[in-house]
């Protein structure tokens, strides 16, 4: 089954949105297989956002994502990578539709509440960057038969 990496950014943690966000993905029917509250180091931030190294906002991005704890998660389910991106909404909350996390809770592009992997390659890379194999749990859920 497909897995993706999602993370409540420091603004989401400070604004008490961890439970709200976990709730949305749970109710959707996805399965949480790993989660932790953590402080991201400068090194991890630069590696995670490596694709944006040359962008003018890179410094701000690293400063922001290391400015407080984040809630890192791995979710599992059919098409979870793409579906989670849809549930997050567009990068700029001003363009994100109501009903999406960014549409409902974000205002500016710099503080857009949530991160999610944008492809199978990023998902694999980001899961391995943030989690050890021993931190991911493989288990059956009773409700699976009512989702699939
Ligand atoms: P993320 O990686 O955080 O899930 O966001 P994303 O895929 O929707 O957007 P991405 O293009 O990967 O950009 C990463 C983060 O950089 C910040 N950003 N600022 N000032 C700007 O024009 C600008 N553009 C992007 C955003 O916080 C975005 O989430
Ligand atoms: Mg991205």
Structural class assignment:
alpha+beta
Describe the global form. Answer: globular
* Average pLDDT level: 97
Strand order of the largest sheet: 2-3-1-4
Helical fraction: 25-40%
Which strand-content bin applies to the residues?
Answer: 15-25%
Q: Quick one: how many beta strands?
A: 4
Oligomer: single chain
Give a list of the ligands: ribavirin triphosphate, magnesium ion
Low-confidence stretches: none
Instruction: Spell the H/E element sequence.
Output: EHHEHHEHHEH
Radius of gyration: 15 Å
End-to-end Cα distance: 12 Å
DSSP helical segment count: 7
In this structure, how is the largest beta sheet organized? 4 strands, antiparallel
Textual characterization of the structure:
It catalyses: dZDP + ATP = dZTP + ADP; a 2'-deoxyribonucleoside 5'-diphosphate + ATP = a 2'-deoxyribonucleoside 5'-triphosphate + ADP; a ribonucleoside 5'-diphosphate + ATP = a ribonucleoside 5'-triphosphate + ADP. It holds the Pfam family NDK. With 148 residues, this protein is an alpha+beta fold. Helix content is 38%, strand content 16%. The protein is built from 7 helices and 4 strands. It has helices at residues 10-14, 18-28, 42-48, 58-65, 80-88, 101-105, 120-130, and strands at 3-8, 31-38, 70-76, 114-116. Strands 2-3-1-4 form a 4-stranded antiparallel beta sheet. The radius of gyration is 15 Å and the shape is globular. The relative contact order is 0.24. The structure holds ribavirin triphosphate (RTP) and magnesium ion.
Can you give keywords for this protein?
single chain; four-stranded antiparallel β-sheet; 148 residues; 7 helices; alpha+beta
């Amino acid at each position: 089954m497909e897995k993706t990496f999602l993370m409540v950014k420091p603004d989401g943690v400070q604004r008490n949105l961890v439970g709200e966000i976990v709730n949305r993905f749970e109710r959707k029917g996805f399965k949480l297989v790993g989660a932790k509250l953590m402080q991201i180091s400068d090194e991890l931030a630069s590696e995670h956002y490596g694709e944006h190294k040359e962008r003018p906002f890179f410094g701000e991005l690293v400063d922001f994502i290391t400015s407080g704890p984040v809630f890192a998660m791995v979710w599992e389910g059919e098409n979870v990578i793409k579906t989670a991106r849809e549930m997050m909404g567009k990068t700029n909350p001003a363009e994100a539709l109501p009903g999406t996390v960014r549409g409902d809770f974000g205002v500016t592009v710099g503080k857009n509440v949530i991160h999610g992997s944008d492809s199978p390659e990023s998902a694999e890379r980001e899961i391995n960057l943030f989690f050890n194999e021993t931190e991911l749990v493989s288990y059956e859920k009773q409700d699976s038969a009512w989702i699939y």
